[in-house]
Design goal:
The complex is a heterodimer of chains A (311) and B (511). Chain A has 311 residues and is mainly α. Chain A has a single domain (64-305), classed as MetI-like (MetI-like fold, Orthogonal Bundle), CATH 1.10.3720. Chain A has helices spanning 15-20, 22-40, 58-61, 68-75, 77-97, 99-110, 114-125, 132-143, 149-156, 168-196, 200-208, 213-237, 245-251, 257-260, 263-273, 277-304. In chain A, α12 (213-237) packs antiparallel against α16. Chain A is flat, with a radius of gyration of 25 Å. Chain B is α/β, with parallel strands linked by helices and 511 residues long. Chain B folds into three domains: 3-161 and 341-409, Periplasmic binding protein-like II (D-Maltodextrin-Binding Protein, domain 2, 3-Layer(aba) Sandwich); 167-238 and 248-335, Periplasmic binding protein-like II (D-Maltodextrin-Binding Protein, domain 2), CATH 3.40.190.10; 453-509. Chain B contains 22 helices and 16 strands. In chain B, β13 (386-388) and β14 (393-396) form a beta hairpin. The longest helix of chain B is centred in the C-terminal third of the chain and has 30 residues, at 480-509. Mean pLDDT of chain B is 88; it is low at 7-43. Classes of the chains: A mainly alpha (311), B alpha/beta (511). Chain A binds chain B through residues 54-57, 76-78, 140, 144-146, 161, 163, 165-166, 253-255, 257-258, 268-270, 272-277, 279, and chain B through 90-91, 94-95, 97-100, 113-116, 118-119, 122, 124, 211, 217, 271-273, 275-276, 285, 290, 457, 459-461, 464, 467-468, 470-472, 475, 477, 489, 493. Chain B: This is Sugar ABC transporter substrate-binding protein. Chain B: InterPro entries: Bact_solute-bd_prot1, SBP. Chain B: Residues 1-20 form the signal peptide.
Chain lengths: 311, 511
């Protein structure tokens, strides 16, 4: 007996469909459990944002303090600095980094030489597998003032040595540059996959109409991968305040902290290093709420302009 | 082929399960000890105890079992270490405290960290003062040390007894000789030397590729704080007769120290990237002959010399601990690390269930302070790692081997001073002597054992303001007015609260 094609309904909760598609539902069980155990259950811990949490007293024994930590977060002068730095870096990330893999994927798509293409792909994937520690260390070797390769070249050309690592004005450039170097190749994968499923008949039809390469890319390939682009963009917007801790933590020092300190690094130093678990939970909760609001808004906006959105 | 593959997979899965079962299981601490009858110390000695120890690792990798088995023999115990790299101690210790995944012995070195302090004050660990006198080595811990290591009058562990003040200046003697300069007595002379090392080509290679100082990104254990002592800066806090507290960075001498560093930076007499240089790079650079002055722990001299073997074979080092800014012997001063307390060996009540267990573990701590175990943890196994002469002077046979198998233990010694056995290496002997001398000029932190709520919750966040401002001033990014306004920011953001809380705490003790 052949099962009828599965139709995704908004609420497929009737027992009948459960019964009929037992196996399909069984297949989502691991993922479902993963989210319950690792994402939803720990949310209970957010309670400690409203307490002065002491580990050995536990959640039940720690005193309740209401919004004390929230008030501290929003009134501390660091808050505005954190917000500013985070937003600026996020904006740079969207404006500079986000389009690059798309462009690169389109370019790779035009390469007809199979061997050459896969060689290029392999080479640009490699940096993704290096950890931030390694990448920042490599940058350090290149950029430091005392014998860094880059500075030696600048000096040899008669320029002044630049302290890339200790000047606030260079931090963002270095940060984005490192992200591009590490993730550019890897980010093209999803776009390349999306491009491969474009119907070849469309290209043929376009050729019949006399479209050249650029025209075909612009009128066929790009519209075909638009949903993927929109989806990834919405997901990225959800991570506005969530730039990732490790990379920035490695770059920060006393001299560039004013532009480099972001929520992630602040949570680490205030929370884990100084043991203010409640306060850092507060910061984390704030981050999460902002992310949620932004995803919902971005999704609404996407729907408004006639795209599918994420959900 | 595929069948074998399946077998292998099954095997791996099983072994993984078994391993995780072992790892996740609770250590059945002293199961044998519990089967012993009564809890007298004498009887506890005959029981082979199983002891877990959450410990800090200052080296790249943990030690092998070679020395450990000897230590276990000598202490009649089975020790299981959980090593935490020193660089990540804050978060690891904090998460261990938070999740309750502790060991019988926990090495706590960051007693000023808020969550550690809270954990101690909340009674998470045994108060040990009533038991210390039952054990000869622990009984010998002076009342002074016990007081400084106490929090609100209670001692929550066995204090690490370390040398009070370990810092000084290490200079390339061969470079001094080449340039015909004398060992400096004042900070001004030291700056002259730094200048000469930068400009006069002390390594005679015809290139301008050397600096005076080689420093790292650390205002405390790097050059800054030690130089600060020479200018008369207090150790973190100063208190006057009226009980008024002043933080170090509001003193004139702190600013003088910054000016001094700034002059070195602007003249190029210090590595220009010192604000982002790691300790390891600093030592490597020094060993490679890139600079001639190292300000830090005096016993680093031996490591520096070892590292330079084969790269800078003509390196000779001289150590200096009597520099002042005035040239007056009377003004000698050197900051004392943490008032000579290296931290606590603490025993959580969640792991060490009763007095009997506690006594067995105290007995173990007592035993590792014995001469034989001290020698094991310091030099290794006789005739394997070292040879010793009639004077108890030790020569390490193979430095590399020693670094792998013995050095990781050295930071876990509860007592590092007052043993007969000693290093035959002249640099080491000299360093020990100078460190001992330092103790006479040690400047203590008067707020070390005082309580300030604001400092506990926000102290390290606020300290960042000061640290950043100090660096910026040294690198010429802000002027004195800019620095002062940053300090005002510190006061406004909670610094003034810290001052008044410390003053109140100080008055309570010294009415």
């Amino acid at each position: 007996m052949k099962a009828p094609p599965v139709r995704i309904k908004r609420t497929a909760h009737s027992l009948l469909s459960l019964k009929r598609h037992k196996l399909l539902y069984l297949m989502i069980l691991p993922g479902f459990l993963y989210f319950i155990i690792f994402k939803y259950l720990p949310m209970g811990g957010l309670i400690i944002a409203f307490q002065d949490y002491q580990p050995y007293l536990g959640i039940t024994g720690s005193p309740w303090v209401g919004f004390k930590h929230f008030i501290r977060l929003f009134t501390e002068p660091t808050f505005l600095m954190l917000l500013r730095n985070t937003l600026i870096l996020f904006a740079l990330n969207i404006v500079i980094f986000f389009p690059l893999p798309i462009i690169l994927a389109l370019m790779l798509n035009e390469v007809r030489h199979k061997m050459f293409k896969s060689a290029i792909q392999t080479i640009i994937y490699i940096p993704h597998f290096l950890s931030w520690v390694i990448i920042v260390s490599i940058s350090y070797v290149f950029m430091n003032v005392d014998g860094g390769v880059l500075n030696e070249i600048i000096a040899a050309l008669g320029g002044h040595k630049i302290s890339f690592l200790t000047s606030p004005e260079w931090l963002r450039t270095v940060y984005i540059g490192q992200i591009i170097w590490k993730e550019l190749g890897w980010s093209t994968i999803i776009y390349l996959a999306a491009i491969t499923v474009v119907d070849t008949q469309l290209y043929e039809a376009a050729e019949m109409d006399g479209a050249g390469r650029l025209r075909k890319t612009w009128h066929v390939t790009l519209p075909a991968i638009r949903p993927v682009i929109i989806t990834l963009l919405i997901l990225k917007i959800g991570h506005t305040l969530d730039l990732g801790f490790e990379h920035m933590y490695l770059l920060i020092n006393s001299l560039n902290r004013e532009v480099g300190e972001i929520f992630d690094t602040y949570i680490y130093t205030a929370g884990l290093k100084n043991g203010q678990l409640s306060f850092s939970t507060t910061v984390g909760l704030f981050k999460g709420v902002v992310g949620l609001v932004l995803v919902v808004l971005a999704n609404k906006l996407a729907k408004k302009v006639g795209e599918d959105g994420v959900y | 082929m595929s069948r074998n593959y399946k077998k292998l997979a099954a095997l791996m899965l099983c072994s993984g399960l078994v391993l995780s079962a072992c790892g996740g299981g609770n250590s059945n601490t002293n199961s044998q000890a519990q089967s012993a009858k009564s809890g007298t110390t004498a009887e506890a000695e005959n029981v082979k105890a199983k002891i877990t120890w959450l410990n800090l690792l200052h080296t790249a990798s943990p030690p092998t079992d070679k020395v450990l088995s000897k230590i276990e023999e000598a202490t009649h115990a089975e020790i299981e270490f959980s090593w935490v790299p020193d660089a990540s101690k804050e978060e690891r210790i904090n998460t261990s405290l938070a999740s309750g995944s502790l060991s019988d012995i926990v090495t706590l070195t960051i007693l000023d960290n808020s969550s550690v302090r809270n954990a101690l004050k909340a009674g998470m660990f045994w108060e040990v003062s009533p038991y210390l006198d039952e054990f000869p080595n622990l009984a010998a811990i002076s009342q002074d040390t016990r007081n400084s290591a106490s929090i609100e009058g209670k001692l929550y562990g066995v204090p690490f007894q370390k040398a009070k003040a370990r810092n000084g200046v290490i200079i390339r003697k061969d470079w001094l000789d080449k340039l015909g300069m004398a060992v400096p007595k004042t900070t001004a002379e030291l700056l002259e030397i730094a200048k000469a090392f930068t400009e006069k080509d002390p390594d005679s290679n015809g290139k301008k590729d050397t600096t005076g100082f080689m420093d790292r990104s650390d205002l405390v254990y790097g050059a800054f704080k030690t130089l600060g002592s020479y200018f008369g800066t207090p150790n973190v806090w100063a208190v006057d007769d009226a009980g008024i507290m002043t933080p170090e960075f509001e003193t004139e001498s702190y600013i003088q120290t910054m000016d001094y560093m700034r002059a070195s930076f602007e003249g190029g007499y210090i590595n220009q990237d010192f604000a982002v240089t790691a300790k390891n790079d600093q030592q490597q650079n020094f060993a490679q002959g890139k600079a001639g002055i190292y300000v830090g722990a005096l016993f680093d001299s031996k490591n520096l010399l070892n590292m330079s073997k084969g790269i800078q074979d003509n390196m000779e080092l001289v150590m200096v601990n009597d520099i002042t800014s005035t040239g007056n012997e009377a003004d000698r001063a050197i900051w004392a690390g943490t008032n000579g307390i290296g931290g606590l060996l603490s025993f959580p009540k969640s792991e060490v269930k009763d007095e009997k267990e506690l006594k067995r573990i105290l007995k173990f701590v007592n035993d590792i302070m014995n001469d034989d175990v001290y020698a094991l943890m310091t030099y290794g196994i006789q005739d394997v790692h070292y040879t010793v002469d009639a004077d108890m002077a030790v020569t390490i046979k193979d430095t590399d081997l020693w670094q792998q198998e013995v050095q990781p233990f050295s930071s876990s010694r509860p007592k590092e001073v007052g043993y007969k056995i000693h290093d035959a290496d002249p640099l080491k002997v000299e360093a020990e002597k100078l460190i001992e001398e330092n103790a006479n000029y040690a400047v203590l932190n008067p707020a070390y054992s005082l309580e300030s709520e604001t400092n506990t919750t926000q102290g390290s966040e606020l300290q960042k303001i000061v640290t950043d401002a100090t660096y910026k001033y040294i690198l010429g990014k802000i002027d004195l007015a800019g620095y002062k306004s940053e300090i005002e920011k510190w006061e406004k953001s909670g610094g003034s609260m810290i001052i008044s809380e410390y003053e109140a705490a100080y008055k309570a003790i010294n009415p």
